[in-house]
C-alpha cells in the first residue's frame, strides 16, 4: 500500500513557501509562484473553479509542489501545475508515482512543466496506462514588477481603455483559440476576480482588443479583433495590463506558444525578457487501442 506523502498546503505556509523556498529559483519558479498566490486569492473570493495545493510538509525546503485547478464544467480537464526545486527531481518522481490526489481519469492538462521535469511526467502518464500528448511548447516572458509599474503609453483619441465585464465573456470566449482545454468559467472568474482590460471604440463602445491576468496569475487571453489588427491595439492593451500588474506588486509573465511569432515579438517590444527553457503543456489521453 502506497503512503501519501503530500498534504494540503495551509495559507499560513504559503508566504514562506513562495518567498523563501520557490524564490531561490527565480524567475524559473514564476509560474508555480503566481499559480499558488492566485489560488489563495481566488479561494478567499469563492471562485467558480476550485484549487487544491499540495506540498511535502515534513520537507518544505525542497519546494516539491502539485497544484490542481478543477472547473465546474465536468467535460474539461483538471489543470495540474507541478514544481520542485532543482536537484530534487528524483523525490518529485517518487511523489508523483505515489500520490493519489491526481485524478488521471479526468485526463488532466499539465500546464507549463519545467523542462527538467517533463520526462518524469510523461513516464508517469505511461505507467498509468495512458498516453501523453504535447499540447504546446510555451515560451516564458516576464518583467520585474517595479519595471512594469513604470511603463507609460499613450491612448489614441479614437479609443479608450476600460475594465472588462461579465457581459463581454461570451464574445471573448467565441474568439479564444484555447477553448478546447479552458472553459468559459475561467474567463468568468478572471473578469470578476483579477485584472481584465479592453480597448474600446470611443464612438460606439465596440470591444476591439483585450488581455487579462488569468487563473495562473500571469498575463493571458490576449486577442485583437481581426479587423483591427495592425493598428497597435495589441501592444497598447499589453502595456496597460502589464502596468496595472506591476502597480499591484505582481511581476507580469506570459506563457506564449513558441509558434506564435507575432505575440513573441510584441512582448519583446514591450520589454518582456525571454526565459531560455521551453515550458511544455502536456495533455493526458486514452491510449490508442485502434491497432495497426
UniProtKB/TrEMBL annotation:
Residue ranges that the Swiss-Prot or TrEMBL entry lists as coiled coil: none
Classification via SUPFAM superfamilies: Acyl-CoA N-acyltransferases (Nat)
Transmembrane segments: none
GO molecular-function terms, A-Z: acyltransferase activity, transferring groups other than amino-acyl groups
N-acetyltransferase domain mapped to chain residues: 159-289
CDD domains: NAT_SF
Gene3D superfamilies associated with the record: 3.40.630.30
One Pfam family of this chain: DUF5645
Domain of life per record: Eukaryota
Name of protein: N-acetyltransferase domain-containing protein
Species the sequence originates in: Macrosiphum euphorbiae
Phylogenetic lineage: Eukaryota, Metazoa, Ecdysozoa, Arthropoda, Hexapoda
Amino acid at each position: 500500500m502506497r503512503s501519501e506523502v503530500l498534504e494540503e498546503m495551509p495559507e499560513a505556509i504559503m508566504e514562506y513557501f513562495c518567498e523563501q523556498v520557490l524564490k531561490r529559483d527565480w524567475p524559473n519558479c514564476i509560474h508555480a509562484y503566481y499559480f499558488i498566490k492566485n489560488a489563495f486569492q481566488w479561494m478567499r473570493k469563492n471562485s467558480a473553479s476550485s484549487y487544491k495545493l499540495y506540498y511535502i510538509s515534513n520537507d518544505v525546503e525542497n519546494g516539491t509542489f502539485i497544484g490542481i485547478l478543477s472547473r465546474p464544467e465536468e467535460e474539461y480537464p483538471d489543470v495540474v501545475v507541478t514544481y520542485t526545486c532543482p536537484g530534487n527531481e528524483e523525490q518529485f518522481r517518487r511523489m508523483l508515482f505515489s500520490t493519489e490526489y491526481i485524478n488521471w481519469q479526468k485526463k488532466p492538462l499539465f500546464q507549463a512543466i519545467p523542462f527538467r521535469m517533463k520526462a518524469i511526467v510523461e513516464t508517469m502518464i505511461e505507467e498509468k496506462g495512458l498516453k501523453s500528448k504535447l499540447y504546446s511548447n510555451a515560451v516564458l516572458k516576464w518583467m520585474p514588477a517595479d519595471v512594469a509599474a513604470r511603463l507609460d503609453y499613450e491612448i489614441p483619441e479614437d479609443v479608450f481603455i476600460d475594465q472588462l465585464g461579465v457581459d463581454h465573456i461570451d464574445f471573448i470566449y467565441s474568439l479564444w483559440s484555447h477553448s478546447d482545454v479552458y472553459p468559459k468559467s475561467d474567463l468568468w472568474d478572471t473578469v470578476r476576480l483579477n485584472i481584465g482590460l479592453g480597448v474600446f471604440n470611443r464612438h460606439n463602445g465596440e470591444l476591439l482588443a483585450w488581455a487579462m491576468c488569468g487563473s495562473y496569475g500571469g498575463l493571458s487571453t490576449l486577442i485583437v479583433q481581426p479587423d483591427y489588427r495592425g493598428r497597435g491595439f495589441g501592444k497598447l492593451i499589453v502595456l496597460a495590463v502589464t502596468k496595472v500588474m506591476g502597480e499591484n506588486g505582481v511581476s507580469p509573465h506570459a506563457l506564449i506558444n513558441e509558434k506564435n511569432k507575432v505575440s513573441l515579438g510584441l512582448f519583446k517590444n514591450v520589454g518582456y525578457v525571454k526565459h531560455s527553457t521551453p515550458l511544455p503543456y502536456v495533455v493526458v489521453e486514452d491510449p490508442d487501442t485502434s491497432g495497426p
